[in-house]
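Worked example 4.2. Below are the chains of a multi-component assembly; read each line carefully before continuing.
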Amino acid sequence: MTQTTRIASVFSDLRSRGHMAFMPFITAGDPDLSATADVVRTLAEAGVDLIAVGFPYSDPIADGPVIQASYTRALEHKVHVRDIFSTIKQLETEQLPPLVAMVSYAIIFRTGLDTFLDEAHAAGFAGLIVPDLPGDEAEDFLPLVHSRGMDLVELISPTTPPARAERICRQSSGFLYCISVAGTTGVRAELPAQLRTQLESLHTQTDLPLAVGFGVSRPEQVDSLRGRADGVIVRSAIVKMFERLSSGAANRATVLKEIGTFAREMSTAAHQSAG
Amino acid sequence: MNQPAATAAVPDLQGRFGEFGRRYVPETLMHALEQLTEEYEKARRDEAFQAELSDLLRNYVGRPSPLYYAKRLSDQLGGARIYLKREDLNHTGAHKINNTLGQALLTLRMGKRRVIAETGAGQHGGASATACARFGLECVVYMGEEDIRRQKLNVFNMRLMGAEVRPVTSGSRTLRDAINEAMRDWMASVETTHYIIGSVVGPHPVPMMVRDFLAVIGPETRRQAVEQYGRLPDEVIACVGGGSNSAGMFYPFVEDADVRLTGVEAGGRGTSPGDHASTLCYGNKGVLHGSYSYVLQDEDGQTLDVHSISAGLDYPGVGPEHAYWKETGRVTYKSITDDEALQAFETLARTEGIIPAIESSHAIAQAIKTAPTLPKEQSLVVCLSGRGDKDVNEVARLLGREI
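Applying the procedure described above to all two chains together yields the following structure tokens:
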């Protein structure tokens, strides 16, 4: 890709200051789309750098129980793809951190590749993460994404051998999503040691920013990535806060406040310069 | 449409059956699938592997299974002669064992000691537990809570053979959710664990490999038909959920243009979404569980709930090779309702003294419809994929009878 995408410029700004990006994940429509609009604004105010917006899917094999439960809650309230797009469109996304759609290929295929991308682009999404579309199967899809000036962020797993990693580094744009542990997402206590080695080797292979996800949940973990990664992705930790909203354990204002506080802590940790 | 004729030379190296198949899975699984493909290709060409499998199929499973002429049933219907391929007589009572033994041998070859499997009716879970017990492999079977209720006997048997049965409480609590859970387990355990998928579904090489292990059924049938009445069957009928027994039965006949192939899906209680599991008859092209095939989903791509009297057929997807056979017109797919299947279940019990699995009863029901429309000189072979012992409680409940 020749032009600089919104995602790429966020990472290059942060890199020039020696900062990492903080990218939280939320499920669109959990528990409803007005909550989604509120939480996007809350996260933006808290200073996050990018926001991953999950499209609820009935059979999310790449996700753990926390996110599946969140998707189930959203689908119980009949959240449709077109409603997600119209909610995002109303947010005036150019004023917000870049939004990245995290969406199953099942949904994209059924909607139609071009239709989905046109609508995602019109809504203001800057890129996509499609967890069940490995690089090998993305050849037809990739040019359609790029022709709209969007990024297709690919994933690297601890099980990815070097030859596969090379191809993924070549294809991915925006950044690389590095899964820190094999298995589905969830909140984990420690970052694995093996991750450090993998990040080091990826840095020798590519200039793409490396964002680490799956299992990151605390500001201390952000510290442990400093100088090794370009960004952290938090998925289950924020989605878990929404669980309390649905169960009635907390009201919306309280949950949004909690999310704001957490996002500010994480952003602050990510934005400390490497010492 | 200018569709070329179906060929048996599928899938290609990318796992494509025509346009269908491939690998739509998280990156975490990709390397394991590449390794599995490689290991399977080696095993397939390895005479020692094939000899060990043949020996097991003969002496442990009891192959070849008979091709039985159901004369009373045929006479009563007054049309084509109906033959039953008796996969119900295999050890464990269904066709699934052919696949699980092959994959258990492959597990050993790959140096893995743990097996996971999903199950709907419990037949594949049981066959996996059996193969694992036979080879001393650890076995975890994921099973929907709703299916555990429907299939208590199979659950007991699996546990008896040392398998752990893990109830799945997410989603519709049936086969599809059990597959989701098994895939998740596999993503976290892929370095030590082999996932024995029970049907011709999922990412490449699974649909090809499962088909091949089950394609012991078709060649036997060909040979037996020629031995018994001197020619190939005029029509072959098999039930289709994910499509495993039908794939094993149809595949060896794909290039015999004179043999009609008929797949029978679960028509449930009606044609509205949620009332059936007839993916090829009423579904759309789409992606589910790692492959591109036909799927029952809404306009957003969300998988629809399905219904069938049969726990083994209520799956909202279908193997990609079946999608290919549908597109090329090589196989005709029909739908049989719960009531028709129940009637066939009773009819076969009374006329032949054979109690079929409720899954297989769908294929029997189709044969009962078709046979009277054909002359006596023609022959229909029905794949009797499993025995019905596991279903008697559920059937008694539906018929309002006490056991």
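Take a moment to check your reading of the output against the notes. The mean pLDDT of chain B is 96. Chain B has 16 helices and 14 strands.
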